[in-house]
């Protein structure tokens, strides 16, 4: 749909035409409903990375708080760094491909445009070729990515070709998962090395959020916010947004009351619990899951592990994905980042998850599933696996070695929002090697 009647093309429906068509059909406007802060506004589905998606209940109060949060954040950001005058004269142009039934697509592509009008180019789904084509053809100014898509673009041969023009881009955001700083640097270098193409982008906008907290919990601040007290930190998920507070706690069973949780020591990883007006009402018709995640006092158990340092949150892993090998906590995300950082650039994607170890004692050990890049295909799977094992051994401690092996696959399974589905790979492994079962 084109923004407010502008940039209309043959076969496209502008907002003005949609309004006219509705009037001609005699559709009567709905009455204004009287709602309260805790009145249910809509249902949105969680990502479903560790099971079936759950319907999250978002209230009208959640929405009000969400957009008050955005306006406050933007106000302070503009005070620190006044925005440059845009090079375009019409509305900004964004590329939309994430599902709009998920909270990120719903807000970024829809709700936020009520306070900042935007023109959307809507794709049915992610297609790297189409994305690069549309950015060039429609002079796209902003795009929201997830880390796995950044890696796909980095290994795409057209990204560095002359036929792709990225000079219109003024903002690239990333979220939903961890993006290694090395990957961000490489992506920005590719853009800046193309002359003016992408040179105006100094860093990718990152943050952290989840459906159960309406959308956002933390975001990367701009340099100089709050009188110079805040600034960006490479590799972090950012700082708590207005209205949000949190605790990092030691591992505990789901549903443990907040007063029984133990905080981790400074600088140690812990599971993040957040509190604030953006916390959802709970899960629709799922009382057990609601009790486990939504705690008294407005607290929400995120299921994600972070380190809190220098006022910033540093993502470690999903609590359910973290392995304990020989008594040591092992982060699959850390191993994935090391694999993708191999100097030969062998991989376009990678996933690490736990599988039964050789001692058959119930302990899970790391196993990697990898997708080869053009450089990886050229080297051959046998050499890539040998080189990756040697690389990991030189970079990480013994408990983090890939004792479960490395397997080359064509694609890493993901949900529609780009989050990796580790359980799918674990289930496949279990069918051929035996059941994957964690040690309690």
UniProtKB/TrEMBL annotation:
Record-annotated AMP-binding enzyme C-terminal domain positions: 334-419
UniProt cross-references to InterPro entries, sorted A to Z: AMP-bd_C (IPR025110), AMP-bd_C_sf (IPR045851), AMP-binding_CS (IPR020845), AMP-dep_synth/lig_dom (IPR000873), ANL_N_sf (IPR042099)
Entry GO MF terms: CoA-ligase activity
Extent of the signal sequence: none
Transmembrane segments: none
Source taxon at top rank: Eukaryota
Keywords: Ligase
Boundaries of every AMP-dependent synthetase/ligase domain copy: 20-284
PANTHER family assigned: AMP-BINDING DOMAIN-CONTAINING PROTEIN-RELATED, LONG-CHAIN-FATTY-ACID--COA LIGASE
Family: Belongs to the ATP-dependent AMP-binding enzyme family.
Protein name: Uncharacterized protein
Organism: Rhizoctonia solani
